Hints:
By secondary structure, this protein is mainly alpha-helical. About 75% of the residues lie in helices and about 0% in strands.
Amino acid sequence: xxxxxxxAMLPHSIASHIDPSAGAFAVAFVITKLTGPFRLMIDVAxxxxxxxxxxxxxxxxxxxxxxxxxxxxAAAERAAKQGESP
Length: 86
C-alpha cells in the first residue's frame, strides 16, 4: 500500500500531521482522531430522528425504545399520580 499516494489525497491540514513513513494503522488512527468531532456532531444530529423512526418498527423492543402508545400511557399515569399527590 502506497501511503504517500493516500496522504497526497488528503487536505493539507490533515496531511501535515501524518508521517509518510507511518504504516496504514497509524494513518487510519490519525484520520479517525482528526475527524472525531465532525462524526460526533453527525451522531448527535441524527440520533433523535433515528430513534423516532425506530420506535415504529419491530426493533423498538430489542433496542429498549418505547412505542408512542406506551409513552402516552406512561405520561398519563405520571399525570394521574401527580394529581393524587397533595
